[in-house]
Design brief:
By secondary structure, this protein is mostly helical. It has helices at 4-36, 38-43, 77-110, 116-137. The longest helix is centred in the middle third of the chain and has 34 residues, at 77-110.
Length: 149
């Protein structure tokens, strides 16, 4: 592909609704934990969702749920299905981000530039974009404390 920007834009247009759907699934999990499993909610550090912020929340959504299934989720088939959908959305979103970054890197490396500094500057910018994408867009808000102790 000659211009990765068009294909990357298309991937983002596909990925944005998937990301939003994943956020909504995460919110429903937090809502269920808050209303039905309050002790577990407090033990998890009183997390909030992406759009659902219960009273008294202290931190963002626990990303550990991407890799570990909490015991309270197993008690409800609906919560278990929501957790699986959340995980699938996170996986698809990360695959889209990595694909875009690889396409942009290939495009930058394939360009014939007369100055090496120009390419090096773009590669350093790409490294920062990679770090920013993984930090900001892969549900890594679990360690952000909203209120202090």
């Amino acid at each position: 592909m000659r211009d990765p920007w068009i294909f990357g834009g298309i991937l983002l247009l596909i990925g944005a609704p998937i990301l939003l759907y994943g956020f909504l699934q995460a919110d429903q999990l937090i809502r269920a934990q808050y209303h039905s499993h309050r002790d577990d909610w407090e033990r998890d550090g009183r997390p909030a969702g992406f759009f659902f912020w219960p009273p008294g929340f202290r931190r963002r959504f626990p990303t550990v749920w991407l890799f570990r299934t909490p015991a309270w989720v197993c008690t409800s088939p609906e919560c278990l299905a929501r957790l699986r959908r959340y995980r699938l959305c996170a996986l698809v979103w990360n695959i889209i981000c990595i694909s875009i970054m690889v396409m942009v890197a290939k495009y930058i490396l394939a360009k014939k530039t007369p100055r090496l500094n120009f390419v090096v500057q773009h590669l350093l910018g790409l490294k920062e974009a990679l770090i920013g994408c993984f930090v900001a867009m892969s549900f890594s808000w679990s360690v952000v404390e909203v209120f202090g102790d």
